[in-house]
Sequence to fold (240 residues):
Amino acid sequence: MNVILRRFECLPSTNDYAKEQRALGRDMAVLADRQSGGKGTKGRSFSSELGGLYLTLLRFYPNLPASRAFTVMTTAAAAVCKTLEDIGLTPKIKWPNDVYVGGKKICGILIENTFSGNRVRCSIVGIGLNIFNELPQELQDIATSVFKQTGKRYDVDELAQKLLGYLYDENTAKAYFSYLGWIGEPIMILQDDKRIFARLHSVDNQGNLVAQIDGEERRFSAAEISLRINIDKEKTDEND
Ligand code: BTN
Fold:
């Protein structure tokens, strides 16, 4: 792995910076100590205080069919899991690409792909991993950090290097399914203003969630739904 790394004390968003660099046509990693306008999925903001890892990898692909764009996501989520496993943690992926440790979210990933015809030209893979950053009050019950899980203040740069190594390792994507959590468990699917109680069956090769609803399998793309986990079991059994 031999990628240019640009490091900043503060950026509005490492994803937005990487987007501006696309015209250069070469891979680049962008790391910021903090972000003043960190972006999350579905238009949300992402808290990005000092002590967290805010990394975006701009990566070009010579020949990645659009039908395999899902591998960008599987690689990113599995790379985070491998990095966390190396420091003794037990991570789980909440479909499509949130990473959890101890039942709380430790990392979010925002992927923005650029297509050219039926190929992925390049991807912007933004990773926000809580290391020893303070978590805002409203996230205390649902988010965690490496520090909260290990009691140690890991060096952000060292973890970023490890993560980049896994992002460039062609074997990383395969591990996605072994980290996938909540298989067979009750879930709630939010689709527009509908709440659908279901059971998580699997994830297919296109990256769609396969859910079991009233004994039938249904597939959903990440763009059309949000997934809620740790759902009251009785509510799902009513629908079994
Ligand atoms: C989410 O969980 O909603 C996704 C969060 C993604 C956050 C990362 S931090 C680095 C990169 N820059 C951003 O503005 N967002 C991503």
